[in-house]
Amino acid sequence: MTHTALRIVDDPLSVNANAWDELLATQPAPTPFMRHAYLTALHVSGSAGPATGWTPRFLLLEHAGRWMAAAPAYLKTHSWGEYVFDWSWADAYHRHGLHYYPKLVVAVPFTPVAGTRLMAVDASARRRLATALQELTVSSGTSGVHVLFHDETDAMALRTCGWLRREGTQFHWQVDPSRRPSCFEDLLASLQRDKRKKIAQERRRVAEAGIRFTVHRGSEITPALWNHFYQCYLATYAAHGASPHLRREFFELTAGTMADLWLMFVAHRDARPLAASLVALDPARRTVFGRYWGSLETVPFLHFEACYYQPLQWCIDNGYDRFEGGAQGEHKIARGLLPSATQSAHWLAHRGFHEAVGHHLQDETAAVAHHRVALEAHTPFRSGGAG
Question: What span, in angstroms and rounded, lies between the C-alpha atoms of 290 and 323?
């Protein structure tokens, strides 16, 4: 009789790329960020590796030589780069003389984009993978395991295995099929008068500052443009007294292995580039993901133009249905991005803390849902919908 075997892999490069991507393609909510090339670029570049507190522990569940399930798991010694904030939990552990770190996290590092995290051939294999994560947590002596920005199929398996559910909120633009805009002016026309006027004014201020944009997709993004983008990216982090999460080599690697992922908007003044934003494309789901930006100069409203208006205009012009604006930012509502629920799942090895956090999350979930409803009441659209 052949048994199901669990393999734990500490080097993503040793994972079969074709098998990983083939399994991903069959999932209910695949995203390009879960592709083998993206995850290995994070690792090889040193952006997400042991030296930065992301030690790979990829899980592979196999039966008779066939992959049944897989997940990108990491041992974490901090909570940076996750966008699901558990600092208060770590503090509570510390106050009770317990260690919260290391912990186990199933996630795409530095990428708060929802999608399948527990890749599996069926519901049974997905539940077995969830159980394997719990068993690994206990055997490795970590405090708990956390699956971040998962989809609803993952949620059902994790809930069955006793995990705790946590909600968050992001801001997304979703086209209304009944009134699909044919141009950016159509989108503006669907907004309330004050919001429409504000956006038009912001765009006019950027244009009057002499800013013009060029758009570059995939292989059209030259090494010179990548260099410009990274200089802008570094400058913006430096302006906030911070260091960037992603190293230059990460962008160089993905430009070579998955160039079609990227779309770059470059701001110019007098033929000189001075800012850039970088978004990711998912053509299969007709979705654009806002990711990174930077500027060498401070220009009023340039951030809004580069990170929201240019991508939204591109979505409309190219028939894309959805624009996910990234983590946080209630200011996005006025610009046409509406509240959207996200979820994560958590299992803590300490029974007492698991139960205490569970009680806390019941109250937190209700508060988050109430706040999201309150935000929805501030829709910028004249009669609902998103374009």
Answer: 7
Tokens of 257: 């292995």
Give yes or no for residue 176 having a pLDDT over 90: no
Amino acid at 160: T
Q: Please, what sign has the CA dihedral across residues 265, 307, 283, 42?
A: positive
Residue 156 token pair: 């059902």
| Secondary structure string (H, E, C) spanning 344-376 | EEEEECCHHHHHHHHHHHHHHHHHHHHHHHHHH
CATH class of the domain defined by 172-339: alpha beta
Distances (CA, A) of 284 to 25, 190, 287: 11, 27, 8
Distances (CA, A) of 147 to 74, 116, 203, 212, 222: 10, 10, 39, 41, 36
- Domain boundaries for CATH 3.40.630.30 within the chain: 4-162, 172-339
> With bands split at pLDDT 50, 70 and 90, how would you rate the model's confidence at 179?
confident
- Cα gap 231→227, rounded to integer Å: 6
Is it the case that residue 1 has pLDDT exceeding 60? no
Q: How far apart are CA 271 and CA 211, in angstroms?
A: 9
Return the CATH class of domain 4-162. Answer: alpha beta
Give the residue-averaged pLDDT of 164-171: 96
Q: Which ranges constitute the DSSP H helices of the chain?
A: 17-25, 36-44, 87-95, 123-140, 152-160, 184-189, 193-208, 223-239, 248-257, 302-304, 310-317, 351-376
275's CB contacts (< 8 A; 6+ apart) are 232, 266, 267, 293, 294, 295, 296, 297, 299, 302, 306
Beta partners for residue 287, in sequence order: 282, 322
